Amino acid sequence: MKPPAFDYIRPPDLDELLVTFTDGDVLLAGGQSLLPELNERRRLPPRLIDLNGVAQLGGCEIGPDRVVLGALTRHQELVDRADLRAAVPVLSRAAEHVGHAAVRTRGTLGGSIANADPAAELPGVCVLLEASAVLRSPTGGRTALVTELLQAGGLRDREVIIAIELPRLAPAEGWGFRELSRPGAYAFPVVTVSATLRLASDGTVAGLRAAVTGAAPSPYALGSAAAALLTGAPSDDWIDAVAARLATTADPVDDLYASAAYRRRIVRHLAHQALVDARRRALPAVA
Ligand SMILES: Cc1cc2nc3c(=O)[nH]c(=O)nc-3n(C[C@H](O)[C@H](O)[C@H](O)COP(=O)(O)OP(=O)(O)OC[C@H]3O[C@@H](n4cnc5c(N)ncnc54)[C@H](O)[C@@H]3O)c2cc1C
């Protein structure tokens, strides 16, 4: 099927975009989620506003502590750029798992967050790292945690994601990303788990983050529960305890691809693998 006719504009900058953006308009970024929805006539917008001419939505800044990624950052750029990979390796690894090369070449970080699929890889890493979204609308602007946006079910009326801000990983911080995906070329994730681990000089756990997608209405993280898990060295038993905690926190549902019980089991399994990877990458710093 093909979409019904719609109007199309491509504003040259952010001011023009915000002046033009009216109720009913739909933003077009990489089109990798939107165009299939139009083709299947699940969405029937009267007009598309193409973001790809808006320079303020592009570019990446890598600072000493933080990384700011324009909303139009393509998934493949996260994979290919060595400076981004050095700053946020867990995001680059997650991006490798998104779809196939054509999808990664067009699809954007801002589009992935706005699309808010509960299993998607990149929103999960944003939740892991407590990333913030810089947002503008014709009536103002705000900065919001990606976690809060996703829990709230998405963006407010006529909001545009301008950029995503997230912390760099510390040089000695270990990380892991594991995914179970659907078979076939589509390869959309069923469940993903991402984790970071920082060790003190005596080898005890000094910092821990973990996040899960595909096992609750929106991605969730260990968050403040991590503080109680900062005890001793990252032994296999410790990793089992963290993985069990993540699985207990899950709130999965049965669907076409996996039962709720299976998703919960997979969370535990992938969390174990992601934490083992993170430990392996963190250990050389204290060796
Ligand atoms: C075959 C195939 C396989 C895929 N596999 C995966 C996968 O494994 N994992 C995965 O996560 N995704 C997958 N995707 C989806 C892909 O990652 C999309 O790129 C992403 O979900 C949306 O990004 P986009 O830039 O294409 O957004 P679009 O499709 O252009 O837009 C998606 C939605 O976001 C809104 N939007 C876009 N940008 C902004 C912005 N800056 N501000 C506000 N709203 C905005 C649009 O209005 C629209 O509602 C797959 C897609 C295909 C076709």
What does this 3D model show about the protein?
This protein has 287 residues and is of the alpha+beta class. It folds into 3 domains: 7-50, Uridine Diphospho-n-acetylenolpyruvylglucosamine Reductase, domain 2 (2-Layer Sandwich), CATH 3.30.43; 58-167, Uridine Diphospho-n-acetylenolpyruvylglucosamine Reductase, domain 3, CATH 3.30.465.10; 175-286, Enolase-like, domain 1 (2-Layer Sandwich). It has helices at residues 14-20, 34-39, 75-80, 82-87, 89-96, 101-106, 109-115, 121-128, 146-151, 236-249, 260-282, and strands at residues 7-9, 26-28, 47-50, 60-62, 66-70, 132-137, 140-145, 160-167, 174-181, 189-199, 205-213, 220-221. Strands 4-5-8-6-7 form a 5-stranded antiparallel sheet. Strands 9-10-11-12 form a 4-stranded antiparallel sheet, with helices on both faces. Helix 5 (89-96) packs antiparallel against helix 8 and helix 10 (236-249) runs antiparallel to helix 11 (260-282). The protein is globular and about 60 Å long. The mean pLDDT is 95. The site of flavin-adenine dinucleotide (FAD) has 33 residues, from strand 2, helix 2, helix 6, helix 7 and strand 8. Flavin-adenine dinucleotide (FAD) binds at residues 26-34, 36, 51, 71, 98-99, 103, 106-108, 110-112, 114-115, 117, 120-121, 155, 160-161, 186-189.
